[in-house]
Design brief:
The chain is an alpha/beta fold. The protein has helices spanning 14-22, 38-43, 50-54, 59-67, 81-92, 99-112, 123-133, 139-145, 162-169, 184-187, 194-205, 212-228, 248-259, 266-286, 303-309, 324-335, 353-361, 384-397, 417-435, 443-461; strands at 29-31, 148-152, 176-178, 233-237, 290-295, 297-298, 317-318, 342-347, 372-374.
Length: 469
C-alpha cells in the first residue's frame, strides 16, 4: 500500500517517478490563464484566515459543500470564518475520488507544511496552524513559492491596467504579471446591461460608440493599449461557438437596433457574435497575439441562487450543444485570408475532445509549431480522468509533445499545486507508455517532451521574454 499523498503520489511506475522527480517537478510555471487580482498582487495582500484564502469566491468548493448538505450560511452566508472552515473540513473528509480532496491536501502540504489528513478531528488544529502560517504568507510569497515566472490575469477592455504598471515598476518582485484581453461584455449584445457597458467603454476610450464600426475602432485602440502594457493573449468565454455570415450592412443594422434598445432575434445575435469575433481575431493576428476560445458552458442554472449571489456562484454546468462544424467554419473564415491567429480551443464538454483535435489539425501550418492548440482539460474536467482523456485524445490525433500544458484558471493564490497535480498525471501516463513498450526509453526525447509540456512549449508559443529551461 502506498503512503497517502506521498512523494510517489499518482506515480505508478519507476519510469513515471523518474520523469516527474528528475524533470517535471523542477520546472517553473507559466500560468497563462488565471483570475488572480493584479491589485492584490501589487498590494501583496495577507489573508487573515485560511477561510478567506481558501473558501471565499471558490465555487468549486461551494458546489461540493452543497452536495454534502451544508446550509448556505456556512458557504456564502454570515457564518464565521471558523464555522465555515469546520463545515469545509467535514465535507472534504468524505470527498473520496474528488480532485478537491487531492488539491486540498497538496495545498496544505506545500504552503502550510501539514502532512496529515483534514477531517472533523483535525479541523481545529489545521485551522489554527494555517492562520498562524498566513501571517508570513502573502500573495507574492505564495506565487514565488510556486516557482512562477509569468502569469496572465483576465482583464476587461475598460481596465486602465494601473496595477500591472505598478507591479512592473516594482523591481523587488521578479514574476512578470501581464494582462490578458477579455472582451466578453463587448460581444454579449443580448445582455440586459449591454448598453450600460457600451457607455462605460465609450467613456474610457473618449470615443462615442454609435456604430459597429466605432465599436471596432475603440476595441482596436484598447488592444493597442493592452499591447503597450505587455499583453499578448486574449480570451473569450462563450456558451457556444457560432458561425453565421452577414454583410457589414446587416451587422450595422443589428447594432443600431440594440443601441435603440430594440429586441434582437437569435439569428441576429449569432450574426453579430460571428462578425465581432472574426474582427477581433484579425486584430489579434496583426499583433501576433494568442486567442483562447472557451465554450461549452451553461451558466447560472439555479435562478434562485443566481438572484441571491450573482454569477460565479457554483451553479454553472457542462453544455450539451457541440458546435464542431461551426468551429470549422469559423477557423476557415480566418484561414482563407491568412488572418488566423495562434488559437487555443477549450470545450467544457469532454465529448468534444477528439472532434476538436480533428478540426484544428485541418488548420495547422508552419513555421509555428502546433499553431492551433487543444486547451487543457478545463473546469469540470481538470481531474485525473479528464486530464488523461484530454492528453490521450491529443496524442491520438495530434502532437502531445507540443502541448502548452496546464493553467490554473483560478482566483486562489494557493491553486498552483494544480500544475504539480497535472505534471504527476502527465508523467504517469508517459511512464505507462514507456513501461508498456509503446514508446522507447530514450532519455533525450523523454526529457524534451516532459520539460516541453511542463514549461518550455508555453515559453515558445506565447513569445514570452523568458529563457527555456
Amino acid at each position: 500500500m502506498k503512503q497517502f499523498m506521498g512523494d510517489d503520489f499518482l506515480l505508478n511506475s519507476k519510469t513515471a517517478n523518474h520523469l516527474y522527480h528528475d524533470y517535471a517537478k523542477k520546472m517553473p510555471i507559466i500560468d497563462y490563464h488565471c483570475h488572480l487580482s493584479p491589485k492584490e498582487i501589487y498590494e501583496d495582500v495577507h489573508f487573515q484566515t485560511i477561510t478567506e484564502a481558501w473558501l471565499k469566491g471558490d465555487h468549486y468548493k461551494w458546489r461540493i459543500m452543497r452536495a454534502h448538505g451544508v446550509e448556505e450560511r456556512y458557504i456564502t452566508g454570515d457564518a464565521s470564518d471558523e464555522e465555515k472552515f469546520m463545515k469545509w473540513a467535514e465535507t472534504i473528509s468524505l470527498a473520496i475520488g474528488n480532485p478537491l480532496f487531492h488539491w486540498t491536501h497538496m495545498e496544505l502540504q506545500k504552503f502550510f507544511d501539514y502532512h496529515g489528513v483534514l477531517n472533523n478531528e483535525s479541523a481545529k488544529e489545521v485551522y489554527e496552524l494555517c492562520n498562524k502560517k498566513l501571517k508570513t504568507l502573502s500573495a507574492r510569497k505564495m506565487i514565488e513559492m510556486s516557482n512562477v515566472t509569468h502569469l496572465c490575469t483576465t482583464d476587461d477592455p475598460i481596465d486602465d491596467l494601473r496595477w500591472h504598471a505598478l507591479i512592473k515598476e516594482d523591481k523587488s518582485f521578479k514574476v512578470k504579471v501581464m494582462p490578458a484581453f477579455r472582451p466578453d461584455k463587448s460581444m454579449s449584445i443580448n445582455r440586459n446591461d449591454y448598453l450600460d457597458y457600451i457607455a462605460k467603454l465609450s467613456k474610457v476610450s473618449k470615443i462615442n460608440i454609435n456604430s459597429f464600426a466605432s465599436l471596432m475602432e475603440v476595441l482596436k485602440k484598447r488592444i493597442e493599449f493592452f499591447n503597450e502594457n505587455g499583453c499578448s493573449i486574449s480570451d473569450h468565454g462563450m456558451d457556444l461557438i457560432v458561425y453565421k455570415e452577414a454583410s457589414e450592412e446587416e451587422i450595422e443594422t443589428i447594432f443600431q437596433k440594440r443601441l435603440n434598445n430594440q429586441d434582437l432575434s437569435q439569428d441576429e445575435i449569432y450574426k453579430f457574435r460571428t462578425a465581432f469575433l472574426l474582427k477581433m481575431c484579425k486584430e489579434y493576428a496583426k499583433n501576433n497575439w494568442v486567442v483562447q476560445l472557451h465554450y461549452g458552458v451553461v451558466r447560472d442554472n439555479n435562478e434562485k441562487l443566481f438572484k441571491k449571489l450573482g454569477p460565479d456562484a457554483g451553479i454553472d454546468s457542462i453544455g450539451d450543444n457541440t458546435q464542431i462544424s461551426m468551429l470549422a467554419k469559423f477557423l476557415n473564415a480566418l484561414a482563407k485570408t491568412d488572418e488566423l491567429p495562434k488559437t487555443i480551443v477549450y470545450s467544457l464538454n469532454p465529448i468534444d475532445n477528439t472532434a476538436i483535435e480533428t478540426v484544428i489539425a485541418c488548420f495547422q501550418e508552419g513555421p509555428t509549431v502546433s499553431k492551433l492548440q487543444h486547451g487543457a482539460a478545463w473546469w469540470f474536467n481538470d481531474h485525473k480522468d479528464g486530464m488523461e482523456a484530454h492528453m490521450k485524445s491529443l496524442a491520438n490525433e495530434g502532437m502531445l509533445a507540443h502541448f502548452v500544458g496546464m493553467l490554473t484558471d483560478s482566483r486562489s493564490f494557493l491553486s498552483y499545486t494544480r500544475h504539480d497535480y497535472f505534471r504527476r498525471i502527465l508523467c504517469n501516463l508517459v511512464g505507462e507508455w514507456v513501461e508498456n513498450g509503446e514508446y522507447p526509453n530514450d532519455e533525450l526525447y523523454l526529457e524534451k517532451i516532459i520539460k516541453g509540456i511542463s514549461y518550455n512549449n508555453a515559453y515558445t508559443y506565447f513569445n514570452f521574454d523568458v529563457e527555456e529551461k
